[in-house]
Design brief:
Length: 167
């Protein structure tokens, strides 16, 4: 059984993951309209992964005798200045998510809920990967700068980068 404190923290995390999914969906849609098909595909897939992160939490809360709350979502931005600004926003967002996950882990220890603590370790590892991936992409983008040919190749590369990630 979950304590109220843990249930509230997990429901807060459900909101964060749902919001992340919506945020990346909006980025994906923007990239698609800009003709950046590789970037769009990467972000659509990332959005789906966030939805999976949310669902995993919903199922866990309910299976442990709690009640998951399906939240209302904020409207994400409709457009971005550049691909660079998209991935900068993505990294900033993921850094905040990591801080929130760490906070949930801390609450688990305070409440001596080792089952939830164990469950949350999957999210801890996932955040390390996601932040590292976002940093790699930003490094590539900073090498490219304003070079259109470079951006074209980057867009193509991103499809295979994400292909490897999901294997
Ligand atoms: Fe599910 Fe990217 O945090």
């Amino acid at each position: 059984m979950l304590t109220k404190k843990i249930q509230d923290a997990l429901n807060e995390q459900i909101l964060t993951e749902a919001q992340s999914s919506q945020f990346y969906l909006s980025m994906a849609s923007w990239a698609e309209t800009e003709g950046l098909n590789g970037v769009a595909r990467f972000l659509y897939q990332h959005s789906d992964e966030e939805r999976m992160h949310m669902l995993k939490l919903v199922r866990f809360v309910n299976e442990r005798g709690g009640k998951a709350v399906i939240p209302e979502l904020k409207q994400p931005p409709k457009k971005w200045e550049s691909v660079q600004s998209v991935f900068k926003a993505l990294l900033d967002h993921e850094t905040n998510v990591t801080a929130e996950i760490n906070n949930v882990v801390e609450i688990c220890l305070d409440e001596k809920d080792y089952t939830t603590h164990n469950f949350m370790q999957w999210y801890v590892s996932e955040q390390i990967e996601e932040e590292a991936l976002a940093r790699t992409i930003l490094d590539k983008l900073s090498l490219i700068g304003n070079d259109k040919g470079g951006l074209y190749l980057f867009d193509r590369d991103l499809e295979s980068l994400h292909g490897q990630e999901s294997e």
